[in-house]
Structure formats: C-alpha cells, structure tokens
Specification:
This protein is of the alpha/beta class. It folds into two domains: 214 residues, Response regulator (Rossmann fold); 149 residues, Rossmann fold (3-Layer(aba) Sandwich). The protein is built from 13 helices and 17 strands. The strands form four sheets. The protein has a seven-stranded mixed β-sheet with strand order 9-8-10-11-12-16-17, with helices on both faces. The protein has a five-stranded parallel β-sheet with strand order 4-3-5-6-7, sandwiched between helices. Strands 13-14-15 form a three-stranded antiparallel β-sheet, covered by helices on one side. Helix 4 links the parallel strand 5 and strand 6. Helix 5 packs across helix 6. The longest helix has 20 residues. It is globular, with a radius of gyration of 21 Å. The protein starts with 8 loop residues before the first strand and ends in a 13-residue tail after the last strand. The N terminus is likely disordered.
C-alpha cells in the first residue's frame, strides 16, 4: 500500500480543510488532515424519524461546542451526516460508505436495535467504532460498539419493579413487532415473575401501524393495573390518541413506556400523553447545573419551543465520550479509542455517567417520570446510586 500522503488541500464539508490522500483505512490510519471526520447516522425520514431525527441536532451542537473550544487533538470535527431512512439495509449501506469512502474516525448513530444489528457486519469489516445512543434491550456486547444509553436492567427491570411496588401487579404488554419490544417483554416477564407481578396480555403491531382498536379492546377486556408499552416511532401518535378516545387516558389507566420521551410527546400531542409514565435516564426538567446549561444552549440554538428527550441528551454525551476517548488514547485510531474508553467518566446533563470497565455499556441513574400538561415530566422516582450495566441478566 502506498503510504505517501499528498499535501494538496481540499475544502471540507463544514468549511475546514482536509489533506487529500489520507485513505489508508482506519486501522493504523495516519490522520494527516486539519479536520477529523465524525459520522452521524440517523433516520431523517420514514416512520422512526419522529423519534430519531432530533438526535442529530444534539450531536451537531456538541461538535460545534468542541470545535469552538479548539477541537479534538487540535483538529476540528467535520460532520458527515447520513440518513438511514428507517430502513435497516440503508443503515448498513451508509455505514459502509462512512467507513470506506468518508474515512470517519467514529460514527454516532442508529436508533432501533434492528438498525444497530444491521450495521455490525460493516463495522467489523471496516474496523470502525459506533456510539449507540439509544436505550435498548441488552443481550449484546460488540467490541466495536459503545452503548451509551441504558440497557434492559437499567430500564425494563427497573420499570417492572416500580410498577409492581407502586401501581399494581397485573401488566399488559404491548409493543411494535421487532427485536427491541419482543426482547424487552421477554425480560419484563422474567422480572415480573421475580417481583410478584403477572402478565395479563401481550400484543404486537407492525412498525408504522396506525390502527390499534383491536389491541385496545383486548386491553379493556383484560383490565390491567398497568400497560407496559414498547410501541415506537410514529405509531405512538395513533396509539396514544386511540387510548384516550377509548377512555384509557392517563387519569384512568397507568401506562409506562421505555421509549416515549419529551421529544415523542411533542409529536404525539401533550393532551394525549398527560398522566402516562416513562422510565428514562434523563428528563429535561432535571435540576442540575449541567442540565440547565445544556437546555439553555439547546433552546438558544434551535428555538425556545424545542424539547429535549433522553436519546437526544445521550447522543450529545456520546460525542463528548468519543472526544475524551480520543484524548486519553492520544489517537483517532478506533482500536486505541476503544481501549481507552474503559472507565471514562463525564458530568453529563443527566448527572455522572461512566463507561463500564469491560462490557462497553455505561453506569447511570434511572428515573421514572409522569407526563405533565406542558409535555414535560415530573420525576416520581430516581435510583439512589448509579446503576451498573448488566447486558446479560440472569433471573
């Protein structure tokens, strides 16, 4: 392989300059350029865009803050943005493009578990690094992925424990029909058996589904104390509206979701979500100095009416965790950044977050919030300490 690097400068996508010819592959690549490329890969279109597109705004804000403070190892971040279009095959294709053509140092991306699993072969082949900023079901540990949000023991198990203790023991499970909901419900059933709860129904709807009358009729017939929902994306608009129309609004029926944040409520409609619960690591209403600064900066940049949900905050954190990993490794080489990431800790808007010493997940606090009329959440429970990640729980 020719390792001579041309000194010819070309203009980068964000106005920076990139030295042409630095195409040696990421493993051992010489990053002879004034910018470093960071890939952002999310659904900007399709049914998952309701939940996923806003993550890009938080990630871009983080890169701009870092650039304003001098960049990473003296280089400015050049963002390369790609649309996964809510299609797993597109996510895989765009991952190959980002690694092979754009030579990005890392990717912050994916939302659904199906999209994450779809990109793993391309990550392996391209020796890349992915920061995955969405709560998920666990059951995975890939050497090329840093899982920066909560896994099932930090969301599903905590949610089941809280519902059984505070809201009732009979639970109806409803979700979209793909990996995350089905795996979460499997874990939920095991957790409920441990905590003394019981499942009184389990139903799934296709991704993008908008007719929930049959499922809602089954819920009404079962008369559960609580509904645990893993319905995702645009389907939540129809699901929450139809629940309310059927007389199962938040004043009459306990519903807890591990996938509906402030951002989804913005699309669902506040009246349709008020009174329902969510189990998350982050809520916009958190009273921390870091969060108040974060919210103020985000609204100043994107508008006072914008809201911030958990995946957006975790996406923001992910950029900073990558930066810290690079600085600790003193290299953009993914292999060195992965090795340097163990034990990394940041004071995030949600509070302290720490990368696990070996399993590529993060320690973090877990919270349950109740949706208010203004679309925000009132925190009704918080774990007393950081919860350790356990992607392969045994019951």
């Amino acid at each position: 392989m020719d390792t001579n690097i041309s000194r010819r400068k070309v203009v980068g996508a964000m106005g920076g300059t990139v030295l042409a010819g630095a195409g040696m592959g990421l493993s051992g690549q010489v990053f002879a350029q004034e910018t470093v490329k960071l890939g952002l890969l999310h659904s900007l279109s399709g049914t998952i865009a309701l939940s996923e597109a806003s993550l890009v705004d938080a990630e871009k804000m983080a890169t701009e803050e870092i650039n304003a403070a001098g960049g990473v190892l003296g280089r400015k971040i050049e963002v390369v943005l790609e649309d996964g279009a809510s299609e797993n095959t597109v996510f895989a294709e765009k991952t190959r493009k980002l690694l092979e053509r754009d030579k990005v140092a890392a990717i912050i991306g994916c939302y659904t578990s199906a999209s994450r699993k779809a990109v793993l072969p391309a990550l392996t082949a391209g020796k890349g690094l992915l920061y995955y900023p969405t709560y998920y079901e666990g059951q995975e540990q890939d050497k090329r992925v840093i899982y920066t949000s909560q896994e099932a023991t930090q969301s599903v198990v905590a949610a089941m424990d809280w519902m059984v203790k505070h809201k009732g023991k009979s639970i109806f499970l409803v979700g979209s029909d793909y990996i995350y909901p089905r795996t979460c419900n499997k874990i939920a059933k095991q957790a409920l058996a441990k905590f003394g709860g019981k499942v009184v129904g389990e139903e799934y709807a296709p991704l993008g589904h908008s007719e929930f009358s049959s499922i809602i009729n089954k819920i009404k017939a079962a008369k559960p104390d609580c509904i645990y929902s893993t319905v995702v994306g645009g389907s939540n608009v129809a699901f929450y509206k139809q629940l309310r129309a059927a007389g199962l609004d938040g004043s009459k029926q306990v519903l807890l979701s591990t996938v509906v944040s402030e951002n989804e409520i913005d699309g669902i409609g506040r009246d349709n979500a008020v009174g329902y619960y969510a189990c998350m690591g982050y809520f916009q209403n958190l009273k921390t100095v870091a969060n108040e600064r974060f919210v103020k900066a985000f609204k100043a940049k994107y508008g006072a009416q914008r809201v911030i949900g958990d995946p957006m905050e975790v996406a923001y954190n992910s950029v900073y965790l990558w930066k810290l990993g690079v600085e600790k490794a003193k290299s953009f080489d993914p292999e060195k950044v992965i090795a340097a990431s163990a034990g990394l800790e940041i004071e995030a808007p949600e509070g302290k977050v720490r990368v696990h010493e070996s399993n590529h997940h993060v320690y973090k606090k877990v919270r349950v919030g109740r949706a208010l009329p203004d679309g925000q959440f009132e925190v009704v429970w918080e774990s007393p300490e950081l919860m350790p990640p356990n992607p392969f729980p045994k019951f």
